[in-house]
Amino acid sequence: MANEAKPCPCDIGDQMEYGGLGQEVQLEHTKAYVVKPSTASDKAIIVIQDIYGWQLPNTRYMADMLATNGYIAVCPDFYVGKEPWSPSHDWSKFQEWLEDKKPTNINKEVDVVLRFLKEQCGAKHIGAVGFCWGGVATHYLALQYAEVKAGVSVYGMSLLEDRYELKSPTLFIFGEKDEVIPLDQVTKLKEKCTVDYQVKIFPGQTHGFVHRKREDINPTDKPSIQMARTDMLNWLNKYM
């Protein structure tokens, strides 16, 4: 269960003006939303989209929040121009839609983003934060890229065979009422994981609760959302 978060001198977005503080740029074969902090930083976060794509305002809101806390944030189009999922789509076609958008088939795009962050942004410490589809992708990065120093996987977990062999410290955040939590897989982390990790399950929360926009947050959910965002920032600050 979730424990009370430690105090963090950070901006968790509840007062942040919603708008989009960054800009879209071309990164070799794909595009990305990039937002930089007000003062120079050598710390960067790859923000990984959910199924609704890299242009979803909620995800960019999280990138903006990370930038206000001192991180260069880059949210790439991991679908590389392919149409993201839409609430109006037929859910019976979801697996078919997902077929060419596997969150474990992103190495080409990750390599492009890492080059951009190192060579053009001067990043020396790189982490990843992802939501839903992006949570699975973040877990995948933690298995594959030792240079990604910290990960926060929000409502997502890879089911690859080597899923417990984390190379970097990873925080997993879930909502208790999220029907896609792989609880049986989560408990096995304790048995097999050799790097630092943490699993936090927030009582009463549903899928998508952490990256809701300010205007979509109701008073009942606000403490859990604030705590989860604070946990995310504390984790990144600790390991980066």
Automatic annotation (TrEMBL):
It comes from Seriola lalandi dorsalis. It comes from the Eukaryota. Its main location: cytoplasm. Residues 31-239 form the Dienelactone hydrolase domain. GO terms for cellular component: cytosol. The keyword Iron does not apply. One of its GO terms (molecular function) is hydrolase activity. Pfam families: DLH. Keywords: Cytoplasm, Hydrolase. Belongs to the dienelactone hydrolase family. This is Carboxymethylenebutenolidase homolog. It is found in: Cytoplasm, Cytosol. The keyword Cytoplasm applies.
